[in-house]
Amino acid sequence: MTRRVTIADIAAAAGVSKGAVSYALNGRPGVSETTRTKILAIAAEMGFVPNRAARSLSVSSAQAVGIALRRSARTIGIEPYFMELISGIEATLSAGSFGLTLQIVGTVEEELEVYRRWWAERRVDGVFLCDVGTSDQRLDFIADLGLPAVAVGGPIEGARFPAVWHDDVEPSRDILEYLYTLGHRRVARIAGIPGLLHTAIRDKAYDDTAADLAFESVTTIHSDYTGEQGAQITRRLLSSAKRPTAIVYDNDVMAVAGLGVAHELGLEIPEQLSLVAWDDSQLCRLTHPALTSLTRDIPAYGAKCAEVLLTLIGAATEAAHQGAETRTFSVQCKPAQLSPRGSTGPAQT
Amino acid sequence: MTRRVTIADIAAAAGVSKGAVSYALNGRPGVSETTRTKILAIAAEMGFVPNRAARSLSVSSAQAVGIALRRSARTIGIEPYFMELISGIEATLSAGSFGLTLQIVGTVEEELEVYRRWWAERRVDGVFLCDVGTSDQRLDFIADLGLPAVAVGGPIEGARFPAVWHDDVEPSRDILEYLYTLGHRRVARIAGIPGLLHTAIRDKAYDDTAADLAFESVTTIHSDYTGEQGAQITRRLLSSAKRPTAIVYDNDVMAVAGLGVAHELGLEIPEQLSLVAWDDSQLCRLTHPALTSLTRDIPAYGAKCAEVLLTLIGAATEAAHQGAETRTFSVQCKPAQLSPRGSTGPAQT
DNA sequence: CAGTATCGCTTAACCGGATAAGTAGCGTCA
DNA sequence: TGACGCTACTTATCCGGTTAAGCGATACTG
């Protein structure tokens, strides 16, 4: 079992003081180039890595950010979204040698408690806020703590910290116009959880677009994003007298479940029913027919979120030293693109 | 922006010294019950939460464990396995108020580097080792570091740290016997990555069982676990002259992809082809027909892994203080159970 | 009643870095 | 030649906890 190397060890080896070593390692003035080179060489040779706790204690930064996910153990795995997001976040974080602390919680109260603890413990320098709601108590809570944060989703009006988001209005319109062009007149949408911001945004975009086109009916039914509900609602829709000729799902998991139900009922896809999924994961390409879906680059999205959070943390650190003011800025990403595949086709006449 | 409370603040408020506060908060002897109660009350009132860095620095523990996953950004999301595992791990960790640090890496070298850094920085007290290979360089590397670790998978002979695993031999036999009873005589298995320990274990279990029964052929083809390869290999198998009447997949994603291919080729499931998946996630119940699969409780498995790691960390801490020796112990979990669903049926005569 | 154990607390050192303040050595310049 | 400034360090303090050691005051004990 190797011993951990401290700056005191390096100082002893180099015949200088701890302070000199610290200056040398951090690229600060105060040591000659000769000494600096020598110290760096010794540090490298000894395999020195600074003790995070010690550094954190003196500079008051954790070099880590946190993400709390509010899902049950059984349902969290099924959605590819989070892992892809985290994967993108990670890519940016590790480039800046930040760590990612993950916590899975059951309720909002637990989530708020986690944020408070992280903040009080100084375990993280900032957090990502997922599943932003239309009226989200976490926003003020975190802003009041003074904890740097980035909302993953938006836009959020009057937010006290930045949001990274992409427009859902245009893609919503794209879907409906696409289906309209294919001749569909009765369209149903199995939407996500009603309280979520992006659900509300899509709801409105849907209604607005529907009003502009001569649909017979455009209905929205809210769900909880699970495959079970997706299947159940699809079954109900397809058993009704005037069943829709196209169904749009707010995520890929429900769309896959919906496809299963269509198979179960013996419906030909896309001849008798067209299906569209939001959030194109690999899942959409595994089914037959493959699911037409709204594609966006989620790892890139996560990377952007991380980038903004790191910038924010940097700014907060600056501000603490120089009293500069922190500006809230939002970042809009490229909207999702419709990827037509086998699950959509002309409506039956 | 609230100020963080330190033990010095509490000491001042209670009119005692920092030391007394520390004793009181940690439930150690050295203060009277009266004083202890008073200090605890003040601490609670002020909302005191200890600074993790400070505590870590003095007690040399991070109160966090790490998990490094070696997957690409695009493929990591699709497998429900990891999120379920992490979810289970989390449940146990947060009960012990440990944090989880997650890192996604691309190569083994990167992964080893992450472990070394975590260890040197004292960022984690222990790690989980996923995707254990048949000859895994990480095992010795981590053991040499003296970093407490738990292998998620096994059994590992002569390991220098514990493994949490479940028997794959019995379930492998279960599948083959089940298919044999249904009259299947030509069975194919699309296996996982050849270097992985559990792939090797299943390979052998398969061969052994096949030798005991009068199959016409039992073939194994290795893959990379992705839906693409699952689909591609399935397509090849089903296009061959003597195509199998049943295919077993080493994970659920490939099985879903295989089902898609079967649909694409117009095969009736299960009349013309039976499909079995390992690792029953919700995915298996979303398709039509639902996939017969090997069910195991992955969150519970993760919880067990975390429990063992925490025990190990506790033991290591003890050992450091008292010089006691650390015992390596392995934990075997309940093997996966076959859940027959619509994707399997009698072989066509 | 002196000797001593125990309680209840304070003091101070320590963990491993960062960093402000202090200082020795040397060149510069009036 | 002495005041001054600069370089290249060293020293000491701090971050916020933990903990060994110290130290009165009280209780116990032979």
TrEMBL record, chains A, B:
InterPro entries from the UniProt entry: HTH_LacI, LacI/GalR-like_sensor, Lambda_DNA-bd_dom_sf, Peripla_BP_I
This protein's record includes keyword Transcription regulation: yes
GO molecular function: DNA-binding transcription factor activity; transcription cis-regulatory region binding
Keyword Cell cycle: no
Domain HTH lacI-type per the UniProt entry, residue ranges: 5-59
Any Pfam family: LacI
Keyword list, A-Z: DNA-binding, Transcription, Transcription regulation
PROSITE patterns: HTH_LACI_1 (PS00356), HTH_LACI_2 (PS50932)
PANTHER family with a match to the protein in the record: ALANINE RACEMASE, LACI-RELATED TRANSCRIPTIONAL REPRESSOR
This protein's name: LacI family transcriptional regulator
